[in-house]
Amino acid sequence: MNNSPLLQCSQVRKAFPKPDGEELLVLDGMNLELREGQIMGLLGRSGSGKSTLLRLIAGLAEPSAGEVQYLGHPVVGPARGIAMVFQSFALFPWLTVFENVALGLEAQNLPRAEIRKRSLAAIDLIGLDGFESAYPRELSGGMRQRVGFARALVVHPNILLMDEPFSALDVLTAETLRTDFLDLWAEGRMPIKGVILVTHNIEEAVLMCDRILVFGSNPGRILSEIKVTLPQPRNRLDPSFRELVERIYVEMTARPKGAGPGGRQERFPGLGIGSVLPHVGSNILSGLMEAVAAAPFKGKADLPEIASDLQMEIDELFPVAETLQLLRFAELEGGDLKLTEDGLAFAQADIDERKRIFLRHLLAYVPLAAHIRRVLDERVSHSARKSRFIDELEDFMSEDDAEQTLRAVIRWARYAEAFAYDDENAMFSLENPT
Amino acid sequence: MKRFEPYVFLKGLASRWDVLAFIVVIGLIAFLGETAHGLFDPLAKLEAVPLSLDPVHLPEYAARTTFRMLAALFFSLVFTLTYATWAAKSERAGRLLVPILDILQSVPILGFISITTVFFLSLAPGRVLGGEFVAIFAIFTSQAWNMAFSFYQSLRTVPIELTEAAESFRLSPWMRFWQLETPFALPALVWNMMLSMSGGWFFVVASESFTVGNSSVALPGIGSYIALAIQEKNLRAIGWAILTMLVVILLYDQLLFRPLVAWVDRFRVEQEPGERVPDSWALTMMRRSRLITASTLAFHNAVFWTSRLVKRTDKPLVLVEEQDRPKRRSLDLLWVSLLVLAVGAGLWHILAVLVVNTPLAEALHVCGLACLTMVRVFILIALASLVWVPIGVWVGMRPRAAQIVQPIAQFMAAFPANLLFPIAVYGIVVWKLNPDVFLSPLMILGTQWYILFNIIAGATTIPAEMRYAATNFGIKGWLWWRRVALPAVLPFYVTGAITASGGSWNAAQVSELVSWGHTQIRARGLGAYIADAAETRNFHQIILGVAVMSLFVVVINRLFWRPLYYYAERKYRMT
Question: Minimal Cα distance from B490: which residue of A?
């Protein structure tokens, strides 16, 4: 095995300009190395910049600072030798399977005979024999992603980048594709030397990767690196496999170093009126509280367990759990979700009682909700324009975040009957619509 | 949470949106009153107060032209809601109504004008009103067909779940029409209304000044103003007319279409979460204002109460069909016999008016002219495509550029070819150019923009990941155009090209016979033939020209565009 890294990122930073002239920092201080023979996982939640990093590595975007090096040369623009597999497959619907696969070789101006030979070999390798003349729309999702793999492999890349390649597939199909891929990799039948896999599925990362980089958000950065030394093929039910999954859950729910005892600064910075609120509805909040309150969890649930129980991915589960924490209905710690007294009471209560509890918590722990309510109470008309609050929020956050935050508060306030909102006139009021 | 409201009265007075709404509404009423003022004057008065090229009169002319266009739009809407609904609801009627619509769409507008003038004038003998009827009907014929088609399409594609929901709640057909079908069809309909308004401008000159017998009528309006400016070779007046059009288009865009587009956004069934919601200050005004809210409430109440009045069938649907089978058969029979009668009458008229009076030589001559026009249309569409497809793709991939280009193209599409007559005539006379070649660009003047619109729309739908994939695999240059960009926009291109082709045939009447002062330049073609016939009021020639043009347009659509469209849809549409 060669000693120099296939790929190296040093101090990579990516920021996007915002309309107001400031910039939105997506990735900062990113250092990583990919060596020959490794499958490296980038694990994190949406918004942690892992897909952005993948695009930087592929040369589809340019870093604002720092450098990406491939085989010792800086990556500027799409590099030959780095191929990508996409979440949405990104096949060209007007080309047949064969034409889709051959397209990458056509771009290299190879002789016709060689294009044909190599395309058929890739189609053969990935198990698409007999589908050469089919159009993508005639194929199932699994078959389409196989075309995506064949198209990437046919150009004989050194590095294969995979951007959540299995997340658009159903559970069974995804598992088949993963196993097939790992088999080909283990047998060394693919021309690739290293793989980077972006995922938000912890089990998938543990199943496939040799190293896992756990990403944190705001801005995206590496929280920790976990080496997976379990032998392939791995068994999901193996205790050491479960232990590793559990450990990563703990890692991902851990309080950042230096944060206060509340530990919420990480996800909801500032906690004042200016904190960005997640778009989580009241139904899923009550659903999660009920599930945690019920047997077998009895008020305290292990995150991996409840995630698989509810068939939710971490991407979906974490924002809900964190919203419960924000509203003081639950505590999130060490990979566990523990309901508070009021959380338990809420889970047992009937609909009116629930609304009362929710209203109390909303006004006590969500400063923006309390603020809107206060303004409405104070005004003689008991009504206020949405733009008034949007302007206030935009002192703290971007236009889009302000909109989302206000939407979240409106949703919760409607459920709690804290105040009403008329979308047509963009007016808050204390009256119910007639 | 109902609270006591002691300040309701004060609150009602205080809204500044109410003030704004008041001004706009009263202004609108004043405008209508002002415009309607001259309607019952005798026609002779038009001659007594001749049109003037003084730009002082332009606001009034603009108001009258806009009024005509809005009236035509209103009638188009009424036509759409009835004709298209009938075609969509009754399978029997649909089989006939849809092809009729297709043919009406291909009938050149000068044909409509010359054939219907006498009839409409006779409705209000000797009054300006009759002339207004002629103009409004002419504009109507340039607006109605595509609106009806869009509505028909929407009615046929209401999602099956929504239809089933409506059925399971036993909505009466009347309720279903207002609560489900019309709302569902609105977004596409509004879009087509915007296209129709642009299309209406193109024939504004032809529709406002026309000849009856030996006298010519020029209704006060921008169209007549342009016609007079051309006759008197007044370049400055042409400039004023362009400026006025720009202002009018901006005004109705802000006051009518922007609010409509923002309003119908809520009726879209599928909504992408990240998409920006259209915004309009005028709509905000209407929503904030009590005055206007109250009047929309009246409409809601009307729908509500009429829904109660219309009796719903409480019988299960299947049983109804079983019982009605014999009745149905006799209805079918009646329908078929009516059809046979209509076709027979039509045939007889064609024989009596056209075939008997047309020497074979003339028929061949007209077909030859149609071929010339056809060649011209195809070459121009090809040339326009060469220019606009690359530009459209480039613009469509850059959202910011698209935002700038779209409204400009929309204005250009409304630009009547007549405004370019001075340039065309001047160029051809000075450089002694061949009019057969150099008049042709006028045909595509207003219609090429449909190609651009559609290409831009198509390019914006290419998913980001697909573009990344192309970049990642190093697909560049001609290979990129051939394998990625062109296939991606092809379905959109065909839609645009069909519209552009139909429009160019129609535009041939205005652009193959061009005048500036007393200089008249003609290109050989069917458009010039029809324009000549309309000027000399040779009915037989008009009908012959119109029939041949309709025939050509329909046949080209059926044999060329439609197969191409289905092919592109099937193979290249992204799903």
Answer: A94
Structure ipTM: 0.72
> Could you give the number of structural domains in chain A?
3
The stretch A8-31 carries a mean pLDDT of: 81
A151 interaction partners in chain B (CB closer than 8 Å): 469, 473
Residue A51 maps to a domain: yes
Element (H, E) at A27: strand A23-34
Q: Does residue A302 belong to any structural domain of this protein?
A: yes
Tell me: the pLDDT tens digits for B183-200?
888 888 888 888 888 888
Q: How many CB pairs under 8 A join A and B?
A: 82
More confident residue, A424 or B341: B341
Report DSSP letters for A214-243, one per residue: EEETTTBEEEEEEE--PPSSP-TTSHHHHH
Q: Which helix (H) or strand (E) holds B509?
A: helix B486-511
Residue to mutate among B16, B275, B287, B473, with most A CBs inside 10 A, is B473
Do A286 and A411 fall into the same domain?
A: no
What is the tens place of the pLDDT at every residue in B354-404?
777 778 888 899 999 999 999 999 999 999 999 999 999 998 888 788 778
Residue A375 domain-assigned (yes or no):
yes
* Sheet strands side by side (includes A23-34): A23-34, A7-17, A65-70, A73-74
Q: Quick check: A147 pLDDT over 90? A: yes
Which residues in chain A have their CB less than 8 angstroms from residue B487's CB?
A: 92, 94-95
Residue A426 has pLDDT above 90, yes or no: no
Residue A269 binned pLDDT confidence (cut-offs 50, 70, 90): very low
Residue of chain A minimizing CA distance to B276: A400
Rounded to whole angstroms, how far apart are CA atoms A361 and A211?
A: 42
The 10s digit of each residue's pLDDT in B474-522 is 888 899 999 999 998 998 898 889 888 888 888 888 888 888 888 888 8
Domains of chain B: 41-270 (1.10.3720.10), 356-575 (1.10.3720.10)
Q: Which of A58, A106, A424 is closest, CB to CB, to B472?
A: A58
Category of A420 on φ-ψ map: left (φ > 0), alpha (ψ -120 to 50) or beta: beta
Residues in chain B closer than 8 A to A135 (CB atoms): 571
For the record, the structure tokens of A248 come out as 């990563």
pTM: 0.76
Same domain for A341 and A217, yes or no, is no
User: CA-CA distance, A339 to A285, in Å (whole number)?
Assistant: 12
Q: Is B274 on the interface with A (CB under 8 A)?
A: no
Residue in chain B lying closest to A85 (CA): B469
Measure B182 CA to nearest chain A CA, in Å: 20
For A378, the domain range is: 263-277+366-434
